[in-house]
């Protein structure tokens, strides 16, 4: 059973940053145009593994994309069940055995429960999403450090 949990954590760590890029790119482009943002600056910040939460324009972009992806309500609240589904959609996860997929789902639920506490300011929904994503990324990194190196 321990090996199954390790396998779930390894797969989670490897796939945590994978998303549906085509859809995200379309949403990102629409938001940049809608918000009249500087495309090159937003692209530069977007490429960072852990972008800053202090850039107001980037926070607005994250908020816009999150709403378009259905991860945030119109009033800026993060919809954690939808965020969980996004992490569970990763194609590699769908091909796992039931027990590994179940372990991965529990792991994601635990991470999101911890990261939900990162929300600090209702007035800045984009910043909140960045803080939650940073928390998720840090949780995956913590798991990677605990795994035996090969």
From TrEMBL:
<feature type="signal peptide">
    <location>
        <begin position="1"/>
        <end position="16"/>
    </location>
</feature>
<protein>
    <submittedName>
        <fullName>Uncharacterized protein</fullName>
    </submittedName>
</protein>
<keyword id="KW-0732">Signal</keyword>
<dbReference type="GO" id="GO:0005549">
    <property type="term" value="F:odorant binding"/>
</dbReference>
<dbReference type="Pfam" id="PF01395">
    <property type="entry name" value="PBP_GOBP"/>
</dbReference>
<dbReference type="InterPro" id="IPR036728">
    <property type="entry name" value="PBP_GOBP_sf"/>
</dbReference>
<dbReference type="InterPro" id="IPR006170">
    <property type="entry name" value="PBP/GOBP"/>
</dbReference>
């Amino acid at each position: 059973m321990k090996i199954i949990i390790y396998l779930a954590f390894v797969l989670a760590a490897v796939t945590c940053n994978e998303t549906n890029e085509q859809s995200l790119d379309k949403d990102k482009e629409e938001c940049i145009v809608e918000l009249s943002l500087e495309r090159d600056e937003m692209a530069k910040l977007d490429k960072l593994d852990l972008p800053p939460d202090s850039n107001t324009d980037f926070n607005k972009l994250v908020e816009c994309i999150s709403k378009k992806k259905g991860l945030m309500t119109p009033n800026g609240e993060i919809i954690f069940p939808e965020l969980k589904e996004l992490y569970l959609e990763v194609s590699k996860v769908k091909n796992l055995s039931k027990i590994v997929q179940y372990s991965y789902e529990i792991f994601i639920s635990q991470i999101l429960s911890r990261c939900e506490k990162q929300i600090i300011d209702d007035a800045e929904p984009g910043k909140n999403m960045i803080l939650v994503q940073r928390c998720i990324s840090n949780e995956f990194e913590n798991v990677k450090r605990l795994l035996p190196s090969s």
